[in-house]
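Saturday, quiet lab. Running sequence design on the structure tokens for the scaffold JK sent over.
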């Protein structure tokens, strides 16, 4: 069964255009246990909505797919990385991320405000009060609606 997810990246840190240029990357830098657990649940073939946070506007920019199951996040071991974790070791890693591959860029960003105003997305985890996770599960229906919005010229 293919699952769907929303992953957030700050536009200044790793935009969708960089994933497109790289073609694939390990999803790194997540330092929240619930988000990490979601990353570990991802399966090969799962679909991802790629969300730009701290952007103007913040919103979904395109899609990606999981191509490799979560494995230890290399940034946790790098003392020069902002994501270094001195409590992690190669023998006992704490943080994991799957390898993802670029799929598509939307015609336009589906802005957070548009997501909020779309009645069919009222249950979207991203929109729930207090939800600040960088990884969220998304239903197949929600995924389809957002892809449909991103493919349209209408805002």
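Result came back. Writing it out in full:
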């Amino acid at each position: 069964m293919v699952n769907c997810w929303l992953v957030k990246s700050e536009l200044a840190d790793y935009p969708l255009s960089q994933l497109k240029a790289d073609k694939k990357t390990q999803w790194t830098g997540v330092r929240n246990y619930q988000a990490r657990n979601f990353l570990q649940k991802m399966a090969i073939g799962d679909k991802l909505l790629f969300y730009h946070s701290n952007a103007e506007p913040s919103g979904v920019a395109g899609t990606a797919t999981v191509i490799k199951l979560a494995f230890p996040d290399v940034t946790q071991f790098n003392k020069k990385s902002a994501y270094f974790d001195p409590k992690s070791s190669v023998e006992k890693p704490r943080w994991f991320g799957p390898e993802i591959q670029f799929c598509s860029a939307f015609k336009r960003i589906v802005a957070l405000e548009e997501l909020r105003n779309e009645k069919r997305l009222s249950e979207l985890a991203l929109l729930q009060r207090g939800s600040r996770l960088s990884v969220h599960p998304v239903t197949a229906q929600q995924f389809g609606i957002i892809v449909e919005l991103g493919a349209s010229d209408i805002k």
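Notes for JK: The chain has a mean pLDDT of 95. Strands lie at 4-10, 24-26, 47-53, 59-72, 96-111, 135-138. Ask whether to fix the surface positions before the next round.
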